[in-house]
Structures are given as structure tokens and as C-alpha cells.
Amino acid sequence: xxxxxxxxxxxxxxxxxxxxxxxxxxxxxxxxxxxxxxxxxxxxxxxxxxxxxxxxxxxxxxxxxxxxxxxxxxxxxxxxxxxxxxxxxxxxxxxxxxxxxxxxxxxxxxxxxxxxxxxxxxxxxxxxxxxxxxxxxxxxxxxxxxxxxxxxxxxxxxxxxxxxxxxxxxxxxxxxxxxxxxxxxxxxxxxxxxxxxxx
Length: 199
Ligand SMILES: [Zn+2]
Prior knowledge:
By secondary structure, the protein is α/β, with parallel strands linked by helices. The protein has helices at 6-13, 23-26, 35-50, 81-84, 91-103, 121-129, 141-144, 155-160, 174-182, 184-190, and strands at residues 62-67, 73-78, 111-117, 134-139, 167-169.
């Protein structure tokens, strides 16, 4: 395995989550992937998202829109479903809406979406409609499902069943992103979320 791919592997191997997820099978390193850039973008996004953990509205879901070629950040957004009483306000959809509005464009071709958690089918569909080049995710749907209800369709499957093209890479910095879910303040908030997974 090329050295440049080791950080992904290292993240997986140092994790104790490998046995509880199908992420190993989902891990993809597509041609054209930029591991170092992806890791730095994801680290910055995780840090941005983590700031919410110290507020009255902690959220583990953050997304960023970044210019694919230059790596320049356009914007970041958090999930805002609870505060806006809008079930579609997942971080990814919100970031896509804000980006399209800011650019005054229907298409986000030329941009990459980074997200702290693998996009749900709604968000992945939105990414396809937006014509994003790539989606790079941190934690997996399976990771999130330990805390909140999920629709268990992998992001890659949504792409495969579409007529659109979009490269999906992940998990990237999975442990760091999953740590957003297991922060004590987040665990407390999950108990209050209406979407809390019922056991
Ligand atoms: Zn979503």
C-alpha cells in the first residue's frame, strides 16, 4: 500500500470500532483522492463542529463546501433541524443550500463536500442534484446509528443507483469525527432529541 494511504489505515487500525461497523468494506480511496488535503479539511471541520458541543445546542453533524482544485473553503454549516424545526436541515443540505445561494448557481460542480458523518440518502441525493465533484465523510452511518436513527443506505449505493457521478471517499478521521458523538454534552443532548434511536 502506498505510504500516502497509510493515514486512513492507521485510523482504522487504532480504532476499536472496526468490529461494529461495515465501514471497512465501505472505505474507498478513489483515483484523484487527496488524502492529506482531506485529512486537514476534515480536522478543521471536526474542530468547527466541536465548538457546538460547548453551547446549548450541541451537534455532531457539520459540513463544509470546499473548492475541489484549490482546496479553498467556501463555507461550513451545522445541522440545524432542531432549532429551525426543519427535518431537512441536515448539515450537508444546509451547506449545499447556502453555497448555491452564495454562488448564485444551481450547480456546485467544481466543489467538494466534507461532512463529519456519511451522508444519509437525503443528503447524498442533494449532493448529486447539486453536481458536487466529491463527498468526503468522517464517521459512518453505522457509527451514527448507535446514537440517532438512520436510514441504512450507504452513500455509495445512492450514487450507484443514480444517473449522476460523484466520488465518495471515507471514512476519513473517523475516530475524531465519532468523538463528536460520544462527547458527554452530546450524549446528554441525544437523550433529548426526538430522533433518538429507540431501543
Ligand atoms: Zn442527511
